[in-house]
Amino acid sequence: MENRSPLQIQAYDYLKNMILSGQLDPNVLYSETKLSAQIGVSRTPMREAIQCLSQDGYITVVPSKGFMIRTLNERDMEETIQIRCAVEGFCVRLIAAEAATKKGQKALADLEKLLEKQEKVLKQKNGPCKENLEKGTWTKASLEQFMEYDHQFHRILVNYAQNREFQQLFQRFMYLIHLTTSEALSVPGRTEDTLKEHKLVCSYLREGDGEAACKLLMVHLLMPLTMHLTGEEAPGAPGR
After folding, report:
1. Are 51 and 32 within 8 A, CB to CB?
2. Cβ atoms within 10 Å, residue 224
3. Where are the strands (E) in 133-191, listed by range?
4. Which of 18, 55, 58, 71 has a CA positioned 20 to 30 A from the CA of residue 132?
Protein backbone atom coordinates (compact mmCIF):
# COMPACT_ATOMS: atom_id res chain seq x y z
CA MET A 1 0.00 0.00 0.00
CA GLU A 2 2.91 2.37 -0.62
CA ASN A 3 2.11 5.79 -2.13
CA ARG A 4 -1.59 5.30 -1.44
CA SER A 5 -3.99 7.95 -0.25
CA PRO A 6 -5.41 7.86 3.29
CA LEU A 7 -8.82 6.85 1.89
CA GLN A 8 -7.30 3.94 -0.05
CA ILE A 9 -5.48 2.77 3.07
CA GLN A 10 -8.68 3.15 5.10
CA ALA A 11 -10.65 1.03 2.62
CA TYR A 12 -7.87 -1.60 2.44
CA ASP A 13 -7.54 -1.91 6.21
CA TYR A 14 -11.31 -2.00 6.70
CA LEU A 15 -11.83 -4.83 4.21
CA LYS A 16 -8.76 -6.73 5.39
CA ASN A 17 -9.94 -6.64 9.00
CA MET A 18 -13.40 -7.80 7.96
CA ILE A 19 -11.86 -10.72 6.05
CA LEU A 20 -9.55 -11.77 8.89
CA SER A 21 -12.30 -11.48 11.49
CA GLY A 22 -14.64 -13.66 9.42
CA GLN A 23 -17.23 -10.94 8.85
CA LEU A 24 -17.25 -11.55 5.09
CA ASP A 25 -18.69 -14.80 3.71
CA PRO A 26 -16.47 -16.66 1.19
CA ASN A 27 -19.61 -17.78 -0.65
CA VAL A 28 -20.88 -14.26 -1.32
CA LEU A 29 -20.10 -12.06 -4.34
CA TYR A 30 -19.46 -8.58 -2.90
CA SER A 31 -20.22 -5.34 -4.69
CA GLU A 32 -17.63 -2.59 -4.86
CA THR A 33 -20.39 0.03 -4.95
CA LYS A 34 -22.21 -1.25 -1.86
CA LEU A 35 -19.01 -1.55 0.17
CA SER A 36 -17.96 1.97 -0.86
CA ALA A 37 -21.23 3.29 0.52
CA GLN A 38 -20.89 1.17 3.67
CA ILE A 39 -17.41 2.47 4.45
CA GLY A 40 -18.14 6.01 3.30
CA VAL A 41 -15.46 6.33 0.61
CA SER A 42 -15.74 6.91 -3.13
CA ARG A 43 -15.38 4.09 -5.65
CA THR A 44 -11.86 5.11 -6.71
CA PRO A 45 -10.08 4.41 -3.39
CA MET A 46 -12.27 1.32 -2.95
CA ARG A 47 -11.24 0.03 -6.38
CA GLU A 48 -7.56 0.59 -5.53
CA ALA A 49 -8.01 -1.20 -2.20
CA ILE A 50 -9.66 -4.15 -3.93
CA GLN A 51 -6.79 -4.37 -6.42
CA CYS A 52 -4.27 -4.43 -3.57
CA LEU A 53 -6.24 -7.07 -1.67
CA SER A 54 -6.32 -9.18 -4.82
CA GLN A 55 -2.55 -8.80 -5.27
CA ASP A 56 -2.02 -9.76 -1.62
CA GLY A 57 -4.10 -12.92 -2.08
CA TYR A 58 -7.08 -12.03 0.12
CA ILE A 59 -9.75 -11.93 -2.59
CA THR A 60 -10.56 -13.08 -6.11
CA VAL A 61 -11.88 -10.35 -8.41
CA VAL A 62 -14.81 -11.24 -10.67
CA PRO A 63 -14.59 -8.77 -13.62
CA SER A 64 -17.53 -6.35 -13.88
CA LYS A 65 -19.28 -8.06 -10.95
CA GLY A 66 -17.29 -7.66 -7.74
CA PHE A 67 -15.07 -9.94 -5.68
CA MET A 68 -15.18 -13.02 -3.47
CA ILE A 69 -13.10 -13.94 -0.44
CA ARG A 70 -10.37 -16.36 -1.38
CA THR A 71 -10.67 -19.82 0.13
CA LEU A 72 -7.95 -22.34 0.88
CA ASN A 73 -7.68 -25.39 -1.38
CA GLU A 74 -5.12 -28.17 -1.46
CA ARG A 75 -3.25 -26.80 -4.48
CA ASP A 76 -2.95 -23.30 -2.99
CA MET A 77 -1.71 -24.78 0.27
CA GLU A 78 0.84 -27.00 -1.45
CA GLU A 79 2.21 -24.28 -3.74
CA THR A 80 2.43 -21.72 -0.95
CA ILE A 81 4.28 -24.11 1.34
CA GLN A 82 6.69 -25.14 -1.42
CA ILE A 83 7.60 -21.52 -2.09
CA ARG A 84 8.04 -20.87 1.61
CA CYS A 85 10.34 -23.89 1.91
CA ALA A 86 12.54 -22.55 -0.88
CA VAL A 87 12.70 -18.99 0.45
CA GLU A 88 12.88 -19.66 4.18
CA GLY A 89 15.25 -22.58 3.66
CA PHE A 90 17.69 -20.23 1.95
CA CYS A 91 17.24 -17.64 4.69
CA VAL A 92 17.93 -19.95 7.63
CA ARG A 93 21.11 -21.17 5.96
CA LEU A 94 22.14 -17.55 5.56
CA ILE A 95 21.40 -16.73 9.20
CA ALA A 96 23.32 -19.81 10.38
CA ALA A 97 26.33 -18.83 8.26
CA GLU A 98 26.29 -15.35 9.83
CA ALA A 99 25.22 -16.38 13.34
CA ALA A 100 28.36 -14.92 14.92
CA THR A 101 28.01 -11.54 13.21
CA LYS A 102 26.26 -8.50 14.66
CA LYS A 103 23.45 -8.86 12.12
CA GLY A 104 23.03 -12.56 12.86
CA GLN A 105 23.02 -12.01 16.62
CA LYS A 106 20.37 -9.30 16.27
CA ALA A 107 18.12 -11.63 14.24
CA LEU A 108 18.54 -14.44 16.75
CA ALA A 109 17.76 -12.13 19.65
CA ASP A 110 14.59 -10.96 17.88
CA LEU A 111 13.55 -14.56 17.19
CA GLU A 112 14.07 -15.56 20.80
CA LYS A 113 12.03 -12.60 22.07
CA LEU A 114 9.15 -13.83 19.93
CA LEU A 115 9.54 -17.33 21.36
CA GLU A 116 9.21 -15.87 24.85
CA LYS A 117 5.99 -14.16 23.79
CA GLN A 118 4.64 -17.36 22.22
CA GLU A 119 5.51 -19.29 25.36
CA LYS A 120 3.75 -16.71 27.54
CA VAL A 121 0.57 -16.98 25.47
CA LEU A 122 0.79 -20.78 25.60
CA LYS A 123 1.20 -20.78 29.39
CA GLN A 124 -1.87 -18.58 29.73
CA LYS A 125 -3.78 -21.08 27.61
CA ASN A 126 -2.57 -24.04 29.65
CA GLY A 127 -2.97 -22.33 33.02
CA PRO A 128 -6.07 -21.28 34.95
CA CYS A 129 -8.49 -19.88 32.38
CA LYS A 130 -10.79 -16.91 32.83
CA GLU A 131 -14.35 -16.40 31.69
CA ASN A 132 -15.39 -19.90 32.87
CA LEU A 133 -13.51 -21.55 30.01
CA GLU A 134 -12.32 -25.11 30.42
CA LYS A 135 -8.68 -25.51 31.36
CA GLY A 136 -6.41 -25.81 28.36
CA THR A 137 -8.75 -24.20 25.84
CA TRP A 138 -7.99 -21.23 23.63
CA THR A 139 -9.85 -17.98 23.47
CA LYS A 140 -10.09 -16.65 19.93
CA ALA A 141 -7.97 -13.63 20.85
CA SER A 142 -5.21 -15.77 22.42
CA LEU A 143 -5.00 -18.10 19.43
CA GLU A 144 -4.87 -15.12 17.06
CA GLN A 145 -2.04 -13.66 19.16
CA PHE A 146 -0.12 -16.94 19.05
CA MET A 147 -0.55 -17.04 15.26
CA GLU A 148 0.59 -13.43 14.91
CA TYR A 149 3.82 -14.25 16.78
CA ASP A 150 4.20 -17.27 14.49
CA HIS A 151 3.91 -15.02 11.42
CA GLN A 152 6.39 -12.54 12.92
CA PHE A 153 8.87 -15.37 13.54
CA HIS A 154 8.81 -16.38 9.89
CA ARG A 155 8.89 -12.77 8.69
CA ILE A 156 12.17 -12.28 10.56
CA LEU A 157 13.62 -15.26 8.70
CA VAL A 158 12.43 -13.93 5.34
CA ASN A 159 13.46 -10.32 5.99
CA TYR A 160 16.97 -11.32 7.04
CA ALA A 161 18.09 -11.69 3.42
CA GLN A 162 16.93 -8.11 2.70
CA ASN A 163 15.57 -9.38 -0.60
CA ARG A 164 12.58 -7.32 -1.74
CA GLU A 165 11.27 -10.12 -3.96
CA PHE A 166 11.25 -12.49 -0.98
CA GLN A 167 9.38 -9.93 1.12
CA GLN A 168 6.80 -9.28 -1.61
CA LEU A 169 6.21 -13.01 -2.06
CA PHE A 170 5.65 -13.47 1.66
CA GLN A 171 3.22 -10.55 1.71
CA ARG A 172 1.38 -11.92 -1.31
CA PHE A 173 0.86 -15.26 0.40
CA MET A 174 0.07 -13.78 3.83
CA TYR A 175 -3.64 -14.58 3.75
CA LEU A 176 -3.10 -18.15 2.55
CA ILE A 177 -0.44 -18.53 5.25
CA HIS A 178 -2.99 -17.24 7.77
CA LEU A 179 -5.60 -19.77 6.60
CA THR A 180 -3.07 -22.62 6.61
CA THR A 181 -1.82 -21.72 10.09
CA SER A 182 -5.36 -21.41 11.45
CA GLU A 183 -6.22 -24.89 10.20
CA ALA A 184 -3.03 -26.48 11.51
CA LEU A 185 -3.08 -24.86 14.95
CA SER A 186 -6.66 -25.96 15.52
CA VAL A 187 -5.34 -29.53 15.92
CA PRO A 188 -4.80 -30.34 19.64
CA GLY A 189 -1.14 -30.18 20.61
CA ARG A 190 0.02 -28.42 17.46
CA THR A 191 0.65 -25.10 19.22
CA GLU A 192 2.96 -26.81 21.71
CA ASP A 193 4.82 -28.62 18.92
CA THR A 194 5.10 -25.39 16.93
CA LEU A 195 6.85 -23.67 19.82
CA LYS A 196 9.20 -26.64 20.31
CA GLU A 197 10.12 -26.59 16.63
CA HIS A 198 10.72 -22.83 16.66
CA LYS A 199 13.00 -23.20 19.68
CA LEU A 200 14.97 -26.02 18.06
CA VAL A 201 15.40 -24.05 14.83
CA CYS A 202 16.82 -21.16 16.88
CA SER A 203 19.14 -23.53 18.72
CA TYR A 204 20.55 -24.85 15.45
CA LEU A 205 20.95 -21.33 14.12
CA ARG A 206 22.90 -20.25 17.21
CA GLU A 207 25.20 -23.23 16.66
CA GLY A 208 25.68 -22.17 13.04
CA ASP A 209 24.21 -25.48 11.86
CA GLY A 210 22.34 -24.37 8.75
CA GLU A 211 21.80 -27.94 7.53
CA ALA A 212 19.98 -29.03 10.71
CA ALA A 213 18.00 -25.77 10.88
CA CYS A 214 16.92 -26.10 7.27
CA LYS A 215 15.98 -29.77 7.64
CA LEU A 216 13.79 -29.04 10.66
CA LEU A 217 12.26 -25.98 9.04
CA MET A 218 11.17 -28.07 6.05
CA VAL A 219 9.37 -30.50 8.38
CA HIS A 220 7.84 -27.57 10.25
CA LEU A 221 6.55 -25.82 7.13
CA LEU A 222 5.29 -29.02 5.50
CA MET A 223 3.42 -30.12 8.63
CA PRO A 224 0.11 -28.39 7.78
CA LEU A 225 0.10 -30.06 4.36
CA THR A 226 0.91 -33.44 5.91
CA MET A 227 -1.88 -32.99 8.45
CA HIS A 228 -4.31 -31.86 5.75
CA LEU A 229 -3.62 -34.87 3.56
CA THR A 230 -3.68 -37.47 6.34
CA GLY A 231 -6.41 -35.85 8.39
CA GLU A 232 -4.44 -36.40 11.59
CA GLU A 233 -1.47 -35.13 13.57
CA ALA A 234 1.80 -35.98 11.87
CA PRO A 235 4.82 -37.36 13.73
CA GLY A 236 6.96 -34.91 15.65
CA ALA A 237 9.98 -33.23 14.13
CA PRO A 238 13.11 -35.33 13.79
CA GLY A 239 16.46 -34.53 15.28
CA ARG A 240 19.59 -33.94 13.28
Report:
1. no
2. 24
3. none
4. 18
